[in-house]
Amino acid sequence: MRKIINDPVKVVADALRGLAAAHPGLRVDLEAGIVVRADAPRSGKVGLVSGGGSGHEPLHVGFVGHGMLDAACPGEVFTSPVPDQILAATAAVDGGAGVLHIVKNYTGDVLNFRLAADFAKDDEDIEVATVVVDDDVAVQDSTYTAGRRGTGATLFVEKIAGALAEEGAPLEAVAAVAREVNERTRSFGVALSPCTVPAAGRPTFELDPGEMELGIGIHGEPGRERVKAGSANEIVTAALTAIDADMPLRGSDTLVLVNGMGGTPLLEQYVAYGVASSWLADHGVTVARSLVGPYVTSLEMAGCMISVCRLTPELLRLWDAPVQTPALRWGR
Amino acid sequence: MRKIINDPVKVVADALRGLAAAHPGLRVDLEAGIVVRADAPRSGKVGLVSGGGSGHEPLHVGFVGHGMLDAACPGEVFTSPVPDQILAATAAVDGGAGVLHIVKNYTGDVLNFRLAADFAKDDEDIEVATVVVDDDVAVQDSTYTAGRRGTGATLFVEKIAGALAEEGAPLEAVAAVAREVNERTRSFGVALSPCTVPAAGRPTFELDPGEMELGIGIHGEPGRERVKAGSANEIVTAALTAIDADMPLRGSDTLVLVNGMGGTPLLEQYVAYGVASSWLADHGVTVARSLVGPYVTSLEMAGCMISVCRLTPELLRLWDAPVQTPALRWGR
Amino acid sequence: MNASDFAAWIRRAAELVTADAERLTALDAAIGDGDHGLNLARGFGAAVTALDGLPAGTTPGKVLIGAGRAIVSKTGGASGPLYGTALRRAGKTLGDAAEPDAAALGTALRAALDGVRELGGAGEGDKTMVDALAAAVTAYETAVDGGAGLPAAARAAATGAAEGAEATVPMVARKGRASYLGPRSAGHLDPGAASTVLLLRALADVTGGEG
Amino acid sequence: MNASDFAAWIRRAAELVTADAERLTALDAAIGDGDHGLNLARGFGAAVTALDGLPAGTTPGKVLIGAGRAIVSKTGGASGPLYGTALRRAGKTLGDAAEPDAAALGTALRAALDGVRELGGAGEGDKTMVDALAAAVTAYETAVDGGAGLPAAARAAATGAAEGAEATVPMVARKGRASYLGPRSAGHLDPGAASTVLLLRALADVTGGEG
Ligand SMILES: Nc1ncnc2c1ncn2[C@@H]1O[C@H](COP(=O)(O)OP(=O)(O)O)[C@@H](O)[C@H]1O
Ligand SMILES: Nc1ncnc2c1ncn2[C@@H]1O[C@H](COP(=O)(O)OP(=O)(O)O)[C@@H](O)[C@H]1O
Ligand SMILES: [Mg+2]
Ligand SMILES: [Mg+2]
Ligand SMILES: [Mg+2]
Ligand SMILES: [Mg+2]
Questions:
Q1: Could you tell me if B24 and B130 lie in one domain?
Q2: Which of 31-60 (A) contact B at CB < 8 A?
Q3: In chain D, what are the domain boundaries?
């Protein structure tokens, strides 16, 4: 294991201690296992809570702050948080206008957030709305399956819903825009290496340097298909073709994320973005805004994921609104 | 090779194409191989030019913009830029107030920047001042050696000198503050894995998972010493002890960077920052500002580097000044 | 079975999942995210701690509800809410009974299965813990219907669980993380089904049922 | 040697560094950053292109200056400015001579060495290209002083360079990237010294000197 850790089973708590020290604008409650905006709860403002397994940083803890999340509940590495955590976060950010749970579509996250929402409503009388993010086109969507995974769209949902909540919009409106962003976003990822969960101590799968996994998620799991490792052109084209097949892009104004999975240098992420930008131009797609970097990671996995959101003028306006979090910041 | 590239010898040019597409606020001249602020040259403003081998992204290209660099000249991967590039960048940002070259202390960078400065003065009549950054305490400083390497301090120098230049200060003042930041900063790095230069196609060195390299630079080179891989406590303590031995920290107000080398998850970087923050508190050192993330990388190397700058009130003021670049942004 | 027998069941289950944590995690690494053993060791560890806090003279129902709550609170992942809900439902079904008989335990086990089904939405054949649990409950009921006592029925349930788990190997997953792999999920034992076997084996162990 | 002999030297040097690029890069990976062969292949490739652009009837001096400029402009790294400066200095020293003799070439080689020393600040024993180049220049001068013609002197220089390079193996580097390794740099051949051997061997090859 090539890791900077003390105790493999305390890595999340140790990281939260570092996060607390590094960001005085966050309130980190190690006991409850939650990260909260220092100024929460804000009376009359809808609270935004997200969370999931750790190992995807900066998602979610790095997106807590003005214009984005009010709280995050980090679970153990790649393991959803537990209802107690989610409930504590929900109670901490409720300013009387209700709380939106932003949940990536993994059975564990969905179930734990569902139980927490039940507790919040039943025991604490907090109004909770839930949006489930499921943007990954590598997985077939069907009512008979667990459905698509939530990946890169989560960042878009948190930013855009966060901007609307900051303006004082009511819970239904914030939930509606969150769902709209999710519905308008598709993602596809590729892995060139596995990663190692500290507590497990060995890579999540084996992959020869000459191979790659197409259609991965963000939990170090293998993808839908293993193929010969391809060039940047092949990787990006595979991702964008899959996205475009699911949600035709031609003629759209888009927001594009080229996301490093954790172990791919930024240099290569820019190579990938260069290819993506040409592909999109060639296919009649306008890129209104873009983001290149490791935003939704899978520990030190090598690879990248591409997310494309078909914007509306209102979504663009909300994307551009000021945001001040550890990992995403502009306008203040 | 687990890389997202097309042609290994064109990776820098391909990445610059992506950078240009992603950041309309930058002017990327692929022919000249330079990245320039869209509003350069600004009449009467000192121009800041830095550069060096590629593979350290976001350094330097990601630090071009308001309040930081006016231009960057990226060389081939881990290879200094050539004088023509540096000269083109210098000419592109000269607004009549002279240009500051910020050069990391590697023979190749120093020599190429020196030739470029000579050309700029002799042929183009541009006033050039040079600050050589050499903050790495792993290397012994002596007039009989190449001296210390430039690493994390480069970010501090570029940010703080950039802020002063933005205020309209003259070249001597900007150069002086750049030197002051360099003199007040020390760094030390640790590698848990090597990295692979695309054109070379194989790792820069071999390292067993149970080993680590102490005292590395940022070019995938082995360190001063190979030891048994240690815990986060051991790694961070080794780094801070080396820094403190060279420049006693007790009683100082500091700016601290815990820098991922490229292949270490942000989660682990926060673990490292947590340890650093305790160590510093225990040793009577105040952390006024901090930064945690992969800012000065060595491709996909696993490991981290710690940089500590002993602030003055003026340096803190300049650090806090607004900055708007792809990788560092606040206040606007 | 009285309250301390139920507590012994939970303790034994904690022992078994902890001893087998590496295997469960390895099964999960193959078609999931490689944390199932870690999750259950943490969750059942918390359940054991919760049992220590129960007052003397508590009921079997309260034992299961307390263990279930702790598992929901500490496990995380998909298995935490599912196993936690299973135990809570079973506990609620037992009501105030001080010493439920074989039939009462059967009703509780079926309630546990229904709870898992409702919360997770998986049916038999979806390659989840439901395959093992459903087979266990059916085997238990068949044994009781055939006149078996609680120990023998528990042993039948453990055997049924093992068969149900084994049957997941060729299945293509339709629920949980393994479903993301599509056809690649076939050929692997479902980790949740494997842990369900341990929970039923723990029941057989503490009731001393012969196979 | 006339202008086309000098051009042939540069072309031959480009061939040799390109053919040996992998070895040079591997030497650099051991104690530097693993790009020396890549750098020189790029730089000397550019020098060859620059030669193609020189007018007919050019002088040896202009050949070396043109090649040196191209190397400075395209190589990067430490070796680019150093080798480029070496060639430019040598070219300037040759002046307008149409066919410099053995002594004139000796003066130019010494000027090249001085140029590298001034720009890089390294002396003999610092484990750099200076060790190979200084040994080559001394061997060349000794041969000429002993009455050798240009071909034999060039061969002596190549042999001297090889000896000088070999001598870098036990040294602890005090300049360039290898110096960061401290004592760990001992036991490795300096990549720049190794490439200097190729440049002198190219000279011997095109002048046809026997060893
Ligand atoms: N919808 C579901 N219904 C029933 N069981 C499920 C469902 N989803 C997952 N499981 C079970 O949970 C197990 C995985 O548990 P675990 O690894 O602890 O959680 P996670 O998948 O969140 O990492 C699977 O092997 C499967 O048996
Ligand atoms: N100060 C110096 N003086 C002379 N030669 C040097 C000096 N520094 C480095 N060199 C030579 O340059 C070689 C490395 O060249 P190269 O790998 O192309 O550049 P870089 O070190 O910038 O990657 C070293 O092996 C050494 O021979
Ligand atoms: Mg999990
Ligand atoms: Mg180099
Ligand atoms: Mg799992
Ligand atoms: Mg080199």
A1: yes
A2: 54-55, 57-58
A3: 3-207
* Closest ligand relative to D41 C-alpha: 2
CB C36 within 8 A of CB C43: no
ipTM value, please give it: 0.92
Name the average pLDDT for chain C. Answer: 95
Minimal-distance CA residue of chain B relative to A303:
B4
Looking at A120, A153, A184, the residue that finishes a domain is: A184
Q: How many separate domains does chain B show?
A: 2
Position B221 pLDDT exceeds 90? no
Mean pLDDT of D47-53: 96
Residue B239 lies in a domain: yes
Strands A34-37 and A26-29: antiparallel
Ligand 1 shell residues, CB under 6 Å:
A 79-80, 107-108; C 28, 32-33, 35-36, 39, 77-79, 82, 116, 120-122, 128-130, 175-177, 190-193
Distance from first CA to last CA of chain B, Å, rounded? Answer: 40
Q: Judge contact between D86 and D65, C-beta under 8 A.
A: no
Three-state secondary structure call for residue B138:
coil
What percentage of chain C exceeds 90 in pLDDT? 91
Residues in chain C: 211
Bridge partners, B289 (sequence order)? B255
CATH of the domain at B174: 3.40.50.10440
pLDDT in tens, B167-209: 999 999 999 999 999 999 999 999 999 999 998 888 888 899 8
**B319 lies in some domain:** no
User: Helix, strand or coil for residue A26?
Assistant: strand
Q: Residue C211: pLDDT above 50? A: no
Contact B321, B286 (CB under 8 A): no
| % of chain D beyond a pLDDT of 90 | 91
In a domain, B216, yes or no: yes
Query: For residues A93 and A87, is the Cβ–Cβ distance under 8 A?
Result: no
A266 and A162 in one domain? no
Q: Ligand 2 in contact with D21 (CB < 6 A)?
A: no
Structural domain boundaries, residue A213: 185-311
Same domain, B42 and B176: yes
What's the confidence (pLDDT) of residue D154? 98
pLDDT at D145 over 70: yes
**What whole-number distance in Å separates Cα of residue D16 and Cα of residue A226?**
41
Are residues B277 and B299 part of one domain? yes
Measured CA to CA, the distance from residue D119 to residue D85 in angstroms comes to 8
Determine the Cα–Cα distance for residues C76 and B20; give it in Å rounded to an integer: 43
Query: Tens of pLDDT along A108-160?
Result: 999 999 999 999 998 899 999 999 999 999 987 776 778 899 999 999 999 99
Task: State how far the alpha carbon of A211 is from the alpha carbons of A191, A226, D177, in Å.
Answer: 9, 7, 34
* Residue A138 CB neighbours (<10 A): 27
Whether B53 and B139 share a structural domain: yes
Do B62 and B198 have their domain in common?
no
Q: B5: which chain A residues are within 8 Å (Cβ-Cβ)?
A: 231-232, 268, 271
* pLDDT of C185 higher than 80: yes
Class of domain D3-207: mainly alpha
Task: Find the range with the poorest average confidence among B254-258, C34-38, D124-128.
Answer: C34-38
- Residue B178: inside a domain, yes or no? yes
Torsion of CA D168, D169, D173, D175, to 10 degrees: 40
**Residues B145, D179 contacting (CB under 8 angstroms):** yes
Three-state secondary-structure class, residue A54: strand
One domain, residues B81 and B67: yes
Does residue A100 sit in the same domain as residue A249?
no
CATH number for the domain harbouring residue A194: 3.30.1180.20
Going by C-alpha positions, the residue among D166, D136, D157, D169 that lies closest to residue D209 is: D157
**What is the pTM assigned to this prediction?**
0.94
Instruction: Give yes or no: B283 in active site.
Output: no
- The better pLDDT of the pair B203, D197 is held by D197
Which residues of A are marked as active site?
Answer: 56, 219
